[in-house]
């Protein structure tokens, strides 16, 4: 059986105590890390756990809606 893979955008923000990762697609799903890479790894686990509990509770799995893009501006 083939897994239903989804790609969620995550954002990583520097905080006073390290790095915070979150996804605009998944309300309340966050992860912390001492480095950006650690926050990303922890977010992978947080998303897997979040989706598991949504499915277990019979709630819909959110479809990824956000994409990233950068623009250049004069500042």
Report on the structure:
The chain is an alpha+beta fold. The longest helix has 21 residues, at 36-56. The termini are far apart. It has 1 helix and 3 strands; from the N terminus they run βββα. The protein has one helix at residues 36-56; strands spanning 11-15, 18-22, 30-33. It has a 3-stranded antiparallel sheet, with helices on one face. Strand 2 and strand 3 (30-33) form a beta hairpin. It has a domain at 11-56: Double Stranded RNA Binding Domain, CATH 3.30.160.250.
Features:
alpha+beta, three-stranded antiparallel sheet, globular
At the fold tier of CATH, the topology name of one domain is: Double Stranded RNA Binding Domain
Question: Quick check: average pLDDT?
Answer: 95
* Percentage of residues assigned to helices: 25-40%
Task: Spell out the helices and strands N to C.
Answer: EEEH
Low-confidence parts: none
* CATH architecture verdict of one domain: 2-Layer Sandwich
User: Count of helices?
Assistant: 1
Sketch the major β-sheet: 3 strands, antiparallel
How are the strands of the largest sheet arranged? 1-2-3
Q: Which CATH C-level class of one domain is it?
A: Alpha Beta
Strand content: 15-25%
Q: Categorize the overall geometry.
A: globular
Tell me the number of strands: 3
- What is the straight-line distance between the termini? 51 Å
Which value, in Å, is the CA radius of gyration? Answer: 14 Å
> From the helix content, strand content and strand pairing, which structural class follows?
alpha+beta
């Amino acid at each position: 059986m083939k897994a239903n893979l989804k790609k969620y955008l995550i954002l990583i923000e520097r905080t006073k105590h390290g790095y915070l990762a979150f996804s605009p697609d998944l309300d309340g799903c966050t992860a912390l890390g001492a480095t950006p890479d650690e926050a990303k790894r922890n977010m992978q686990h947080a998303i897997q756990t979040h989706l598991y509990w949504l499915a277990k509770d019979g709630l819909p799995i959110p479809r990824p809606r956000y994409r990233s893009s950068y623009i250049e501006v004069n500042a």
